Amino acid sequence: MGHIYIKDIQFASESKIEDGILYVSEEAVKAVALEDEKIKSVSLDIAKPGESVRITPVKDVIEPRVKVEGRGGIFPGVIAKVDTVGEGKTYALKGMAVVTAGKIVGFQEGIIDMTGPGADYTPFSKTLNLVMVCEPVDGIKQHDYEAAVRFAGFRVATYIGELARELTPDETKVYETCTIKEGMEKYPDLPRVAYVQMLQSQGLLHDTYVYGVDAKKIVPTILSPTEVMDGAIVSGNCVSACDKNPTYVHLNNPVVHDLFEQHGKTLNFVCHIITNENVYLADKMRSSDWTAKLCKMLDLDGVIVSQEGFGNPDTDLIMNCKKIEAEGVKTVIITDEYAGRDGKSQSLADADPAADAVVTGGNANQVIILPKLDKVIGTLDYVTKIAGASEETLREDGSLEVELQVLTGATNETGFNKLSAR
What we know:
This is Beta-aspartyl-peptidase. By secondary structure, the protein is of the alpha/beta class.
């Protein structure tokens, strides 16, 4: 991975990167976004850390990347042709993101505040954000519009990433991936650990794509951990803002990176197992059965299991935990909690004694006051409808009284930040 640090974003007549500054041609970016006939218009804006800016309703956040060596390209099966990725050399534009926003289609889009107390709870208050507000054509179905906005974001992020193809990275990091046999021979005395990632797939508008395939249609499988760094997994879901993993988080999956930090030192990072979170009991049983089976077949000593969403997926989380533990593999689960505004409700919809090692992201129902900011990118028309808000959210002075779950990527400051969970 080659890291190219972006220090500023400016609009210009030509798109290019010079001396750490990203210059963006509005005309060129709009042309890329409008390649889909379902999008009627696109407006662009720039939001910088510390500015009095609120972005809402946020749909996705994407880090631009370009693959310069190795098989395949960025976002395989979505933008690049289907090919196995995760090897060779990839450049990432660090310190910035492409943010997609637009009219709400459900009730789960989020907010990014670039300053104030809300900024403390979202990692995207710290990135330079190129924001795309997309307007749909008249009469479009909600799920078609949602997909169009998401894919427009991927196209623009790919366009921006291509600007870095001939640059020299500011920093380079190498990630070792061994075959099963190589890992056992090289690290015979280290515990064999894998990452089990539960992908959001609860129904319409709750989509996650794996090589372009909706995760609802997959059975649990094994990835090389570096595949996600090339965009093998992308977001398309509308669960609560603090509960959905934007594409940025998939690209920079913190569990993957933290396990790599310990690989060859305290553990042998064997692989990345992905599973889904469907709504029918038979699907939950099948996926958790297969996940536990893979853990046993790989002769693992331990796994970290992360969850996306809450409520219904709590059942998948506990089923995975119980069955993996029953195979003799130790589990640690990563989840957030919905304990009510007073913190007295049951935090998860399901539980089991096997779930005895938990990393918490805190209580998403915690209330926070977001002050009125000088500028809104997008619209406040839906701010009372998003999950974590109410009809009383918009106060007379322009401030917002909301639960933490409205903030994109939010975590409770008293818990662990999901973007640096260990």
